[in-house]
Design a protein that fits this description.
Number of strands: 12
Oligomer: single chain
Number of helices: 14
Largest sheet: 7 strands, mixed
Protein name: Cystathionine gamma-synthase
Strand content: 5-15%
Structural class: alpha/beta
GO biological process, one term: cysteine biosynthetic process via cystathionine
Strand order of the largest sheet: 1-7-6-5-4-2-3
Modified residues (N6-(pyridoxal phosphate)lysine): 195
CATH superfamily of the largest domain: Type I PLP-dependent aspartate aminotransferase-like (Major domain)
Family: Belongs to the trans-sulfuration enzymes family.
GO molecular function: cystathionine gamma-lyase activity; cystathionine gamma-synthase activity; pyridoxal phosphate binding
Shape: globular
Distance between the termini: 56 Å
CATH architecture of the largest domain: 3-Layer(aba) Sandwich
Helix content: 25-40%
Length: 377
């Protein structure tokens, strides 16, 4: 079997069947002729040729049995939520990405679905929260955003399956190159493909990959068609272009992140560093056991000088851009409490870094001058 980098670079050794070209064309047609031939797509609300190619690639990377791309990560999340009915129950990682937490909380409240927030690293608490016939989904995020905690996927899968529930793992930050959640026992993997899979900050997309193409999965596909949330042809084509360089991008970004995390851990003005690749991190052992090839390109750190100093730090960087989002080629910094606003669970002195593919010396120098200016302000 070819390595992931080889698969991605050539889009699965793609060759256009009509022209022999090595780059897939954009097929923007809304409908196709129904002539009984294999490959007829029907109506564009069900998919397009670019989406099918992207789905095939991601399905292979994740060792899945079915893949569906959506027009946003939130749309993919909604598709999973659409399978729930009043009276069902969801257990959600308490420290997950705040926007997904808000989306899921509002949906459950409106639909009469019981939502329980739990630290999924605490298996005893997870076991106490699950109930046979009442818990339908356990929704994990690996690593959590923005504290980058690592839960035990195999253990969570056992807890979920014991009560007849499914385990959903948001692996956006981990990417399929560092983590294969389905292999570890998850039932479905979610990606905000806006982030690393695309990697260039120029489209929104989401994806789901399933371990089984069962009736529940068919409900999700039906929802995507009915809601018109399939990824459009042009965006799917751009996504494919981004996926070609996924292996190179995440390797460089992960290497940079580890160097930066180690440097920050030695700075007297830094009171804490959150990165699962640091050996002193409490989640290192679980990360090492489940990740392969790297620990990710996201990290957070806290300043000894407090919340005001953290907010000011963002305005002092010159290479890191003061902006939200993650997974693109450029490095970003943000004060998470300011971004999340009221109801945030994030420490008010925490800064989140999305580490890009720049020269690491420039990134370290930028952080050093910003830290020096903040300490001496």
């Amino acid at each position: 079997m070819r390595k992931n980098a080889t698969l991605l670079a050539g889009l699965g050794h793609y060759t256009c069947p009509q022209s022999g070209g090595l780059v897939p064309p954009v097929q923007s047609s809304v409908t196709s002729v129904i002539d009984g031939s294999e490959g007829a797509l029907g109506y564009a609300r069900s998919g397009n040729s670019s989406v099918l190619l992207a789905e095939s690639l991601l399905n292979t990377l994740e060792n899945g049995q079915g893949c569906a791309f959506f027009n946003a990560g939130a749309s993919a999340a909604w598709a999973v939520l659409s399978t729930l009915t009043p009276g069902d129950g969801v257990i959600l990682e308490a420290d997950c990405y705040y926007e997904f937490r808000t989306i899921i909380s509002r949906y459950c409240q409106r639909q009469g679905i019981a939502l329980t927030l739990v630290d999924l690293c605490n298996l005893e608490a997870v076991g106490q929260a699950t109930r046979q016939g009442h818990t339908n989904l356990i929704w994990a995020e690996l690593p959590t955003n923005p504290l980058w905690k690592i839960a035990d996927i195999a253990a969570l899968a056992k807890v979920a399956h014991r009560v007849g529930a499914r385990l959903v793992v948001d692996a956006t930050v981990a990417t399929p190159l560092w983590l294969n959640a389905l292999t570890l026992g998850a039932d479905v993997v979610l990606h905000s493909a806006t982030k690393y899979l695309n990697g260039h900050g120029d489209l929104t997309a989401g994806a789901l990959v399933t371990a089984r193409p069962d009736a529940w999965w068919q409900e999700i596909i039906a929802y995507r068609t009915a809601s018109g949330s399939v990824l459009p042809a042009m965006e799917a084509w751009l996504l494919l272009r981004g996926m070609r360089t996924l292996a190179l991008r995440v390797e460089r970004a992960s290497e940079n992140a580890l160097k930066i995390a180690r440097w920050l851990a030695q700075q007297p003005g830094v009171s804490g560093v959150h990165y699962p690749g640091l050996e002193q991190n409490p989640h290192f052992a679980r990360a090492e056991a489940q990740f392969s090839g790297g620990f990710g390109a996201m990290l957070s750190f806290q300043l000894s000088a407090g919340a005001k100093a953290a907010a000011a730090f963002c305005r002092r960087t010159r290479v890191f851009r003061h902006s939200t989002s993650l997974g693109s080629t450029e490095s970003l910094i943000e004060h998470r409490r300011s971004t999340e606003g009221e109801g945030s669970r994030c420490p008010d002195d925490l800064l989140r870094l999305s580490v890009g593919i720049e020269d690491c010396a420039d990134l370290l120098a930028d952080l050093a001058q910003a830290l020096d200016a903040t300490v001496n302000a």
